[in-house]
Inverse folding.
């Protein structure tokens, strides 16, 4: 089973790229973030024509998450993060597909630092930690997939320039500590389980020639419960999709479970 996460950065603007990626890579489950469209305007017909069932949690112009399943309809388990500090934001969706529990997650960006947006980011991550603990305790195959908006370390493996990102919410000690607190429950960072060292980026900004310079960083993560981690066969990033015409600023990131 191939499970992917992809911050599409506007599903209507990127629909040709999304359909292209689905056809060429055929993930069994695709978790999408930053739909930037309402529930009513989600392109369900196009997704179904591509062979995928879908559930979605939209928001006009901002945020929004979805879960697609090839040849199946995801069974929704949770819409919105329990006790979300601001439930007006569509940032969390959880479903079951073929016995696997999958969450599509779009964490708050948190900029500028300090400020209320950064406070919201940390509060949201604390609620995610609490909910993740319950999922972990279920002893089921669970994948928490999404755009976490956290760069795990200052290493070149994770970020092109620690200095350039030093004042960004994505690289603050508090953001990293919140991510580590989730991992400390026993979740496995799938990418680093397969590739413990070496450069792996999932995002390149549209500004300052970031893509041609390969000035990227790793913020899209798939966290696996022990049952899922025991089945881990491979993980990677579909980097070349970032270089296509009118691409998202994120590249699809994926795992394969036996």
């Amino acid at each position: 089973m191939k499970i992917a996460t992809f911050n599409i950065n506007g599903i209507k603007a990127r629909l040709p790229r999304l359909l292209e990626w689905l056809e060429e890579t055929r993930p069994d489950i695709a978790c999408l973030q930053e739909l930037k469209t309402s529930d009513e305007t989600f392109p369900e017909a196009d997704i179904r024509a591509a062979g995928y069932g879908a559930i979605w949690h939209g928001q006009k112009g901002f945020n929004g998450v979805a879960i697609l399943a090839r040849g199946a309809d995801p069974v929704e388990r949770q819409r919105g993060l329990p006790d979300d500090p601001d439930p007006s934001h569509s940032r969390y969706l959880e479903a079951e597909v073929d016995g696997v529990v999958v969450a599509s997650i779009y964490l708050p960006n948190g900029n500028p630092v300090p400020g209320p947006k950064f406070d919201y980011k940390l509060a949201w991550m604390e609620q995610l930690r609490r909910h993740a603990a319950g999922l972990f305790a279920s002893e089921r195959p669970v994948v928490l997939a999404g755009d976490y908006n956290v760069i795990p370390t200052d290493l070149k493996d994770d970020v092109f320039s620690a200095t350039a990102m030093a004042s960004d919410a994505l690289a603050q000690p508090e953001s990293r500590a919140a991510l580590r607190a989730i991992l400390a429950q026993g979740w496995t960072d799938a990418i680093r389980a397969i590739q413990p060292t070496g450069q792996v980026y999932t995002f390149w900004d549209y500004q300052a020639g970031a893509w041609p310079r390969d000035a990227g960083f790793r913020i899209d993560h798939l966290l696996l419960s022990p049952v899922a981690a025991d089945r881990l066969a491979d993980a990677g990033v579909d980097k070349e999709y970032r270089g296509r015409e009118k691409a998202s600023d994120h590249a699809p990131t994926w795992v394969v479970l036996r």
User: Anything to note?
Assistant: The longest strand covers residues 100-106. The chain has a mean pLDDT of 98.
